[in-house]
Amino acid sequence: MNSPLESAALFQIGPVPITQAIVTTWVIMAVLVVGAYLLTRRLSLRPSKRQVALELLVDTLDTQIRETSGAQPAPYRGFIGTLFVFILAANWSSLIPGVEPPTAKLETDAALAVLVFISVIWFGVRGNGVGGYLKSFAAPNPVMIPLNMLASVTRVFSMFVRLFGNVMSGVFVIAIVASLAGLLVPIPLMALDLLTGLVQAYIFAVLAMVFISSTVEDGAHTPADLETSAKKKDS
Amino acid sequence: MTIDFWGLGLQAINVVILVWLLTRVFWRPVAAAIAKRHEAAQAILGDAAATKTKAEAALAELSEARDGIASERTRVLAQATASAEAAKAAALAEAKTQAAALMTSARATIAHETDAVRAKRVAQSGALAVEIAQKLLGRLPDEAIQVRFLDLLVEAIAALPASDRAALAKTKGGLDLLSPADLSASAKVKITKAVQQALEAVPELNFVTDPDLIAGFELRSAHFVLRNSWQADLAAILKELQHVS
């Protein structure tokens, strides 16, 4: 059994080593894009069951974004929805024999965490400007600036570690049980792994939305505003 | 533990590409379809609300029109009833007038026909009486009849005023004595003698045969007629019948 912390390169493209996780990611991307294209080819005002299911998915995502951030879901739908769908597909790809989920590798989860980190900055700047984004670090008061800067890194790091730990551990446990007890014994663990994969995808997407919305909201209020609102709450 | 930063970067690029692709082929189209359906539903709801408002206005208008129709119906019914009553009265009056005219005409026709029938029956009665008289005369002897009618003629002349008798006696050209059949010479002599005695004069007598007399003798001049025949009697009877009926 290989170490889950190491990735062996299948081949090289110039200086870039191509691992199995990257190839699996490409396959998942192709399946998702082609599937999405095929599913959304014939959308009409009189929806079919397929269109209703798609609209239900998008509507549920919009509701989650709206309830989490209180903002209009359109600017965040593409990023948050794709994060959820990709992580879910990657997690559940472990059900295919011989396929190791990309999210069980450090590089994939780290890349997702980096994207969330960048997206927080992107949406913060886009929502409130550079000044507004920088002000978000001074919430609730300027004393918190160092801690907030540290938190902006650690929170995405925690996301990365949480996703990697859950998925990798599931794959690792199933592999150990399968090697020790036989072929059918890991099936309950695989079922549990399905649930874990769904929950982790949901948590990652919701946390990404929470981080983005908190940055946008904090950047929209000055520290004085925040102090005033805190005093009102205390009284 | 080592991190493959090439792999990290490539995976980040992969996810960014996936976000870009799925945004264009999945999230935007489905969201656009939802928005379009929402707009269509809003449009349908708007149309339904407008249609409902229109229907309510039409209903109110219809109710108003129905009330108008009801009052118009009542008015027209009353007008029609009055017109029918007037027409009925006019028709009744006209019918009464026409019936009265018809009755008057019928009465006139009946009276006219009754008169015609009566005249016809009188004529038939006269003819029948003449026929009966002729048949009765046919069964009686001519001598006896002439004697009787000569006696009656003499009595009638005697009953005349003396002035009339004198005027008859002085008639120029003589007197005509009408008999229903030709008389024998002896009968003429006998009659001439009886008439001259009754007139107490000797006027000339011209014997004329007139079968219409049936029986009897009549004495005529230019200005006088002394009737003494069944023809005159029957004519008197017919006149009396016509007068009575």
From TrEMBL, chain A:
Xref: Gene3D superfamilies: ATP synthase, F0 complex, subunit A
Major place of residence: membrane
Q: Where is the signal peptide?
A: none
**Swiss-Prot/TrEMBL keywords:** ATP synthesis, Cell membrane, CF(0), Hydrogen ion transport, Ion transport, Membrane, Transmembrane, Transmembrane helix, Transport
Give the residue spans that cross the bilayer. Answer: 20-40, 76-96, 108-125, 163-185, 192-212
Keyword Metal-binding attached: no
- Pfam hit, one: ATP-synt_A
Which cellular compartments is it found in? Cell membrane; Membrane
Q: Does the keyword Ion transport apply?
A: yes
Q: The organism sits in which domain of life?
A: Bacteria
Q: Which family does it belong to?
A: Belongs to the ATPase A chain family.
What the protein does comes down to:
Key component of the proton channel; it plays a direct role in the translocation of protons across the membrane.
UniProt xrefs under HAMAP family: ATP_synth_a_bact
Protein name in the entry? ATP synthase subunit a
Name the gene that codes for it. Answer: atpB
